[in-house]
Write a structure and sequence with these properties.
With 91 residues, the protein is mainly α. Helices cover 77% and strands 0% of the residues. The protein has one domain.
């Protein structure tokens, strides 16, 4: 459901200028919040301990993000996934 929310589509009836505003003021904040939820799940709710199979799917998803605004967060989450996976392998 979070991936669906991340890929939110604009209403078809928007003009070009409305579409630009929609991307900036609706889509981008929604996408940032989705990434924040993933980060919280990883760090605070120990998502990979409960569902380790999610790590590859999450890493694949994060690798598709190319928006400069979101890339910083996606990179940080990717590093968290790598750290948690490597820590799980050690234990």
């Amino acid at each position: 459901m979070l991936l669906d929310r991340f890929h939110v589509k604009p209403p078809k009836s928007l003009t070009e200028s409305e579409r630009k505003e929609w991307k900036l003021y609706l889509r981008l904040p929604v996408q940032q919040r989705v990434l924040e939820v993933f980060g919280i799940w990883l760090e605070e709710n120990r998502m990979l301990e409960e569902e380790p199979h999610v790590s590859q799917r999450l890493a694949d998803f994060l690798g598709t993000i190319n928006s400069p605004t979101l890339l910083i967060t996606a990179t940080a989450i990717t590093r968290t996934v790598e750290r948690l996976v490597s820590r799980a392998v050690v234990f």
